[in-house]
C-alpha cells in the first residue's frame, strides 16, 4: 500500500485510530466532529473552503515544485545593505544546527533541567552581545532589528526620569526602523522628532530618549560620545543601533556612554532569507536589567550545587503582569540566536576581526576608486556615492552585471560590502560607475576607524571551537542535554508541538530562498512572491477571512497588528472613543499586553466555573462601556481547551454593540478543516505558523504570526516598511519569508482532506488522554458533550493539597521517564495542560499515559507515608547520572530514581544533565553572561 504524506504526518494508523475512538466513545472522526464542536459553526466539508486548497501532493512532487520556485528567483550579488548583508554560514553549522532536528524541534526552555544545551548556547549569545556592545546585560534575542529598536524606545520611556513624551531620532537611522518606531509610537502617545544629530546636535526642548545608528544608514561613522553626554545632561537616555561586526573594530556605543544598544545578528552566519528570520538583540546597563523585555538566560545552581542555567526574571512575564508587562513578546529567535553565537564561537575574536577588516578593505577600495564622489570620509562597510541625476542609471548598470545596489534618491547610490564580497564584485561596481578599479583592495588608503581598544569574546566558549571537529562535538554535547521532538513527545498544551517533516524543512537552506535581500528588485523574487501568494490564498480559505498579511514575525506581533487594524478602523470612522478591549480572564497573557501596546484599555471578562466566558458578565461589561467598546479578544477553542458552544452568540453581542471580534488563532490546530473563524464571527485573527502549520519552534523561535482579516479591515494590514506612511510592524514586508516554504509544503502535501484528518486526530488524541487519565488526575474542563478540544487540563490542586506533591514535582519526574512535561499552571495555577497533537502514534500516547499513571502511584506512596513529602522520587527529580555515584541517603533506590519503569523497559533512557534548579538563587544572584572557569570548578 502506498502511503500518502498525510499518513506519514498523522501518527495513529487506521487500526490505532479505531482503538482511540473506541475509548473516546465515538464511531468515526465525523461523529467526533459533531460531538465536540457546536453545530452552528461546523463547516460542511464540501463548502468549507476546501475547493480553494491544492490537492495533496507527494513529498518528491513538492520538492520539485519548490525547486522550480527557488530557481525562478535571482540570487544576485547583494550590496544593498540597510541592515541586511550576505554571510557565509559555516557548513558545520548548516548541517549540525540549522538542519538538525535536535536543535530545530526543541521548545522554549521552560523546563530548564532538560534544556541546558540551548540555554548554554543562549548564554553564549548574551555574552557575545554584551562583549561587542560594551554593555552589561543582553537578552536572549529579539524578533528583528526594527522591533528591537521599538522595544528600546519603550524601555527608555519606562526607565528614564524625563516626563516628556518626545523621542529624538537621528536622520541616519535605517528607514525600516523609523517606520516600525512610528507604528509603535503613535498609539502610546510618543512624539518622534527627527534631526541630523551629527551636524546640528540635539534639538531644543525636552525629550526622554535619543536613538542613533552605528554606522548610519548612509554608512557614516560618527563619534557619538558628545551627543550621548549632552543627552544625559538633559535627563535623557540614549540607544544605539549597532552593527556587531563593525563593533569588532570601532569603539562600541556602550563604551561611549550609551544606555541601550539594539540591532541584528543577521550577518553572523544567518542568511538574508528575503527578510528573516533573524535574531535581533537588546543590551542595557545593569541598572536597567529588570526592564529588559523578552527572554533572559541566567546562571544558577541545581539541587547538588552544580552550575545550571535557567530563564531569569522575565519568564512568562506576560502571563503574570498582563497589560502591565514590559512587552508583548513571549518568544524570541532562539534558533537564529544560537546560530549567530556558534558563528562567533567558530570564528572567535580574531576571526571576526579578520572578516570585518576584509569587509572594510573592500569598501575602502570602492571609495578609492570613486574618489570625490564619496560622501562620507569615515565608514565601515557602506559607501554613499554622489552621482547627480545619474543614480538610476548606475544602479541599472550594476544590475546588468548581477549586482544589486541601493538607489537612495536620484542623486545618490549606496554600496554595502559584506563577508561574501570579492574583488570581482568591487570591480563590477566600479565599472558600473564608469571608474577603473584600483590595482588591489589593499592598495586603497584606509580611513582610520579601528578605535576599539577593549578585548571581547575571551571566554572559552569563544576560544575553544575553531576546528570543525571541536565545533561538531560541542554542538552534539549541547544537543544531548536537551529533550526535543527527535527524542520524545512534547505534550505542551497551547503550544502544538507537532511533526516538522524533513520534506517541509528541506528548502529553507536553498540559495534561491535564503540568499535574496528583502529589498531586492521585485523581479528578483518571482518564486518567493508566488509562494507567498499561494499561502495568502490558502490561509484565507482555511480561516474564512478575506485578506492576510504574512509580515508579523511572531504570534505576539500578529496580535499587535490585528489590534492596530481594529483601532485604525474605528479612528477612520470617527469612533475616537472606542478604546476598550474586553479580554476573558483565561486568555493568553500576550493578549492583554498587545492591547496595551495598541493603545487600548483592557477590561477583564469573567469565566464561569466550567471555563466558558460568562456571557452575563460580558453583557454587563458591554453595557458599562457602550460607546467605548473597541473589541473583544477571544481564543477559540478556549484557552481552557474546550469548544464553547456560545461562541456565535458572544460574537453577535459584541458586533451589536459596534465592536470587533478578535479570534486568537493560537488553537487553530483544532479548527482547520472543521470551522472557520472568519465565518463564525471573527473580524481578525492571527495564526501561529509555528504551531498549526508546522514551522518548528526552534527552542523558542522562530515563529510566524500572520494576521488575517475580513474585507473591511484589509486596508489596515501592515504594509511595506519602505513605503511612506506604512504601518509596518516588522522590518521586512514579508517578515520571516525564508521559512514560509515549510508551511507551503505542509499544506501542499496534506491537501484539504489531510488537514481535516489531522485536526480531528488531534482532537481524538486529546480526548483519549483525557479518558485514560481522568481517574488519576481529574480533567478540569470539558465541553457540552463531555469532550475536550485538542488539549486537556489535568487538575493536580487536590493532590497537592492532600499530599504536598506539586505540579513541579510531576513535571520534573517526567524527565526521569523520558518525557518533556506538559504546560504548567496555565491557564489555571496548579494544573497541567496536555496537548498530544496529531503526530504522535498510539504507542507514544500510551507511553505518556503509563508514565503519568506510574507517577500517580508514586504520589500515593507519599500520601501513605512510605516516603516523606520532602524526600521522594518526585521531589528529588530529575536525577542525573552524577547523582548516582554521590552519597545516597534517599529512602528510595537509585534504580527507581533513574529507571522508574525498570531496567528492561524499552523506552530509551534520557539523562538530564542537572538536578532541579534553584530559580530563586538565580534571581538573587543575577548573572547573565558566561561565568568564568572558576565557577565551573567550584
Automatic annotation (TrEMBL):
Sequence positions bearing N6-(pyridoxal phosphate)lysine: 691
Every Glycine dehydrogenase C-terminal domain range: 758-879
CDD domains attached to this UniProt entry: GDC-P
EC main group: oxidoreductase
Enzyme Commission numbers on file: 1.4.4.2
Reaction equations catalysed: N(6)-[(R)-lipoyl]-L-lysyl-[glycine-cleavage complex H protein] + glycine + H(+) = N(6)-[(R)-S(8)-aminomethyldihydrolipoyl]-L-lysyl-[glycine-cleavage complex H protein] + CO2
Residues covered by the Glycine cleavage system P-protein N-terminal domain: 7-433, 460-719
Alphabetical keyword list: Oxidoreductase, Pyridoxal phosphate
Cofactor(s) needed for function: pyridoxal 5'-phosphate
NCBIfam families registered for this protein in UniProt: gcvP (TIGR00461), PRK04366.1 (NF003346)
Assembly mode: The glycine cleavage system is composed of four proteins: P, T, L and H.
Database matches in PANTHER family: GLYCINE DEHYDROGENASE (DECARBOXYLATING), MITOCHONDRIAL, GLYCINE DEHYDROGENASE, DECARBOXYLATING
Function comment: The glycine cleavage system catalyzes the degradation of glycine. The P protein binds the alpha-amino group of glycine through its pyridoxal phosphate cofactor; CO(2) is released and the remaining methylamine moiety is then transferred to the lipoamide cofactor of the H protein.
Similarity remark: Belongs to the GcvP family.
Name the UniProt record assigns to this protein: Glycine dehydrogenase (decarboxylating)
Organism: Nocardia callitridis
Amino acid at each position: 500500500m502506498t502511503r500518502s504524506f498525510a499518513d506519514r504526518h498523522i501518527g495513529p494508523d487506521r487500526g490505532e485510530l479505531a482503538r482511540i475512538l473506541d475509548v473516546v466513545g465515538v464511531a468515526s472522526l465525523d461523529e467526533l466532529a459533531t460531538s465536540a464542536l457546536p453545530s452552528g459553526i461546523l463547516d460542511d466539508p464540501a463548502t468549507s473552503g476546501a475547493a480553494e486548497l491544492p490537492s495533496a501532493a507527494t513529498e518528491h512532487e513538492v520538492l520539485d515544485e519548490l525547486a522550480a520556485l527557488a530557481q525562478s528567483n535571482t540570487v544576485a550579488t547583494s550590496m544593498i545593505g540597510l541592515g541586511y548583508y550576505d554571510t557565509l554560514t559555516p557548513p558545520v553549522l548548516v548541517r549540525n544546527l540549522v538542519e538538525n532536528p535536535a536543535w530545530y524541534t526543541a521548545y522554549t526552555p521552560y523546563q530548564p533541567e532538560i534544556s541546558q544545551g540551548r540555554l548554554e548556547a543562549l548564554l553564549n549569545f548574551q555574552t557575545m552581545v554584551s562583549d561587542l556592545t560594551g554593555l552589561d546585560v543582553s537578552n536572549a534575542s529579539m524578533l528583528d532589528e526594527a522591533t528591537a529598536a521599538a522595544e528600546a524606545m519603550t524601555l527608555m520611556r519606562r526607565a528614564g526620569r524625563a516626563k516628556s513624551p518626545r523621542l529624538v531620532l537621528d536622520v541616519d537611522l535605517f528607514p525600516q526602523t523609523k517606520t516600525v518606531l512610528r507604528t509603535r509610537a503613535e498609539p502610546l502617545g510618543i512624539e518622534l522628532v527627527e534631526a541630523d544629530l551629527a551636524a546640528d546636535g540635539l534639538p531644543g526642548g525636552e525629550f526622554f530618549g535619543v536613538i542613533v545608528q552605528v554606522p548610519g544608514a548612509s554608512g557614516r561613522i560618527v563619534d557619538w560620545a558628545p551627543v550621548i553626554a549632552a543627552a544625559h545632561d538633559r535627563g535623557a537616555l540614549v540607544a544605539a543601533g549597532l552593527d556587531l561586526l563593525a563593533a569588532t573594530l570601532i569603539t562600541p556605543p556602550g563604551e561611549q556612554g550609551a544606555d541601550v544598544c539594539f540591532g541584528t545578528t543577521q550577518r553572523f552566519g544567518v542568511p538574508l532569507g528575503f527578510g528573516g528570520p533573524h535574531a535581533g538583540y537588546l543590551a542595557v546597563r545593569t541598572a536597567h536589567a529588570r526592564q529588559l523585555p523578552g527572554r533572559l538566560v541566567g546562571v544558577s545552581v541545581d539541587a547538588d550545587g552544580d552550575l545550571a542555567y535557567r530563564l531569569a526574571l522575565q519568564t512568562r512575564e506576560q502571563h503574570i503582569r498582563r497589560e502591565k508587562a514590559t512587552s508583548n513578546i513571549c518568544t524570541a529567535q532562539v534558533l537564529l540566536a544560537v546560530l549567530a553565537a556558534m558563528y562567533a564561537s567558530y570564528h572567535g575574536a580574531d576571526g571576526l576581526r579578520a572578516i570585518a577588516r576584509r569587509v572594510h578593505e573592500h569598501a575602502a577600495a570602492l571609495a578609492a576608486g570613486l574618489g570625490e564622489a564619496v560622501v562620507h570620509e569615515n565608514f565601515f562597510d557602506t559607501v554613499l556615492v554622489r552621482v547627480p541625476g545619474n543614480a538610476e542609471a548606475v544602479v541599472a548598470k550594476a544590475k546588468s552585471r548581477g549586482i544589486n545596489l541601493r538607489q537612495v534618491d536620484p542623486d545618490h547610490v549606496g554600496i554595502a560590502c559584506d563577508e561574501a564580497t570579492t574583488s570581482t564584485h568591487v570591480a563590477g561596481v566600479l565599472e558600473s560607475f564608469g571608474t577603473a578599479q584600483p590595482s588591489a583592495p589593499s592598495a586603497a588608503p584606509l580611513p582610520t576607524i579601528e578605535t576599539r581598544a577593549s578585548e571581547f569574546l575571551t571566554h572559552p566558549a569563544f576560544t575553544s571551537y575553531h576546528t570543525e571537529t571541536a565545533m561538531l562535538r560541542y554542538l552534539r554535547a549541547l544537543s544531548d542535554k536537551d529533550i526535543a521532538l527527535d527524542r520524545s513527545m512534547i505534550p505542551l498544551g497551547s503550544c502544538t508541538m507537532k511533526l516538522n517533516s524533513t520534506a517541509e524543512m528541506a528548502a529553507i537552506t536553498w540559495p534561491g530562498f535564503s540568499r535574496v535581500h528583502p529589498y531586492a528588485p521585485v523581479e528578483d523574487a518571482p518564486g518567493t512572491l508566488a509562494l507567498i501568494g499561494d499561502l495568502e490564498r490558502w490561509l484565507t480559505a482555511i480561516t474564512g477571512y478575506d485578506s492576510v498579511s504574512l509580515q508579523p514575525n511572531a504570534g505576539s506581533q500578529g496580535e499587535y497588528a490585528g489590534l492596530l487594524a481594529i483601532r485604525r478602523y474605528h479612528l477612520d470612522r470617527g469612533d475616537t472613543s472606542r478604546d476598550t478591549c474586553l479580554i476573558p480572564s483565561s486568555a493568553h497573557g500576550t493578549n492583554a499586553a498587545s492591547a496595551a501596546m495598541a493603545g487600548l484599555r483592557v477590561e477583564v471578562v469573567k469565566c464561569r466555573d466550567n471555563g466558558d466566558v460568562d456571557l452575563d458578565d460580558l453583557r454587563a461589561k458591554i453595557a458599562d462601556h457602550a460607546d467605548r467598546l473597541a473589541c473583544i479578544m477571544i481564543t477559540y477553542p478556549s484557552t481552557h481547551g474546550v469548544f464553547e458552544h456560545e461562541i456565535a452568540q458572544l460574537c453577535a453581542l459584541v458586533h451589536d454593540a459596534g465592536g470587533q471580534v478578535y479570534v486568537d488563532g493560537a488553537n487553530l490546530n483544532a479548527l482547520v478543516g472543521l470551522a472557520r473563524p472568519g465565518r463564525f464571527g471573527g473580524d481578525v485573527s492571527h495564526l501561529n505558523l509555528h504551531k498549526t502549520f508546522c514551522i518548528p519552534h526552534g527552542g523558542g523561535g522562530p515563529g510566524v504570526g500572520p494576521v488575517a482579516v475580513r474585507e473591511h479591515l484589509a486596508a489596515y494590514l501592515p504594509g511595506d516598511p519602505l513605503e511612506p506612511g506604512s504601518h509596518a510592524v516588522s522590518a521586512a514586508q514579508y517578515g520571516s519569508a525564508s521559512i514560509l516554504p515549510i508551511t507551503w509544503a505542509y499544506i501542499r502535501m496534506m491537501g484539504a482532506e489531510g488537514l481535516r484528518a489531522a485536526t480531528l486526530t488531534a482532537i481524538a488524541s486529546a480526548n483519549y488522554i483525557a479518558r485514560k487519565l481522568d481517574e488519576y488526575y481529574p480533567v478540569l474542563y470539558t465541553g457540552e458533550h463531555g469532550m475536550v478540544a485538542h488539549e486537556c487540563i489535568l487538575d493536580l490542586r487536590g493532590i497537592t493539597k492532600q499530599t504536598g506533591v506539586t505540579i513541579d514535582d510531576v513535571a520534573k519526574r517526567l524527565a526521569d521517564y523520558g518525557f518533556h512535561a506538559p504546560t504548567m499552571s496555565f491557564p489555571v495555577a496548579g494544573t497541567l495542560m496536555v496537548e498530544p497533537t496529531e503526530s504522535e502514534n498510539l504507542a507514544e500516547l500510551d507511553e505518556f499515559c503509563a508514565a503519568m499513571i506510574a507517577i500517580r502511584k508514586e504520589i500515593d506512596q507519599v500520601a501513605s507515608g512510605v516516603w516523606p513529602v520532602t524526600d521522594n522520587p518526585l521531589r528529588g527529580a530529575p536525577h542525573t547520572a552524577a547523582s548516582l555515584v554521590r552519597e545516597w541517603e534517599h529512602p528510595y533506590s537509585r534504580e527507581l530514581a533513574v529507571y522508574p519503569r525498570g531496567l528492561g523497559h524499552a523506552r530509551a533512557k534520557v539523562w538530564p544533565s542537572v538536578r532541579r534548579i534553584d530559580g530563586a538563587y538565580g534571581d538573587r544572584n543575577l548573572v547573565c553572561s558566561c561565568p568564568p572557569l572558576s565557577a565551573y570548578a567550584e
